[in-house]
Amino acid sequence: MGNAAMEIVKKSRMVSRPTTLEFIEYIFSDFIELHGDRHFADDKAMVGGIALLEKQPVTVIGVQKGHTIEENVKRSFGSPNPEGYRKQLRLMKQAEKFHRPVILFVNTSGAYCGVGAEERGQGEAIAKNLMEMAGLTVPIISIFIGEGGSGGALALALADRVWMLDNGMYAVLSPEGFASILWRSPERSADAANLMKLTAPDLLKNGVIEKIIPEAREGLAENPEYTMSILKKALIEELKVLNNLTEEELLQQRYYRFRKYGEFTIND
Length: 268
Fold this sequence. Notes:
By secondary structure, the protein is α/β, with parallel strands linked by helices.
């Protein structure tokens, strides 16, 4: 397999990849961004609001990175603070109140690991989101459009459907961190990436995701419309299925989706 997995990791991290706001602009109409967690601040690394998917009102939320150093500093390089996850929760509960499906976009190396974030309850904020998403009575679809790292990504991925772009990834930690722990050598990150089974095909095979959204041959940044048009059509069709489920059926299927993880075995 060589360095194939690490090459995908590198592609998932490219600053040229379209951001959450660019996906929202293409796929949805009449987007109104909502701000703040009503507790501490408005985290620029997490964006969200209400929009229309064709004629259906939805709530869209996602981690926002930037294309420049200035943008990435403003967005904490796509690593949300606790207030970002609490904003996410506020918007999801609002969606539940008004019976709107929730669509989430994931692109983060992980939650922000600063002292202030820990003081404000980073772990608690992520855990609260997981608990609330498990019982949210509206459909949830989560799409990995780039990186998916650690609990920072998991906080947006307890969903009825989890999809990933061709060059996305999802793992408990970075390949560099994995190699540092296992071999005490971050230089072996390519070996770690292969071992971690973090690419879309591996995750699909193991049942962690349900669908891979293809990227154009020339690259996502060069032809984003190709991928976004496929994703838009898939979202419309999938919501027709999920919207026809009763609340009890929706929650039961979500419960069994995550209970089955205990049955997985990792094989080469």
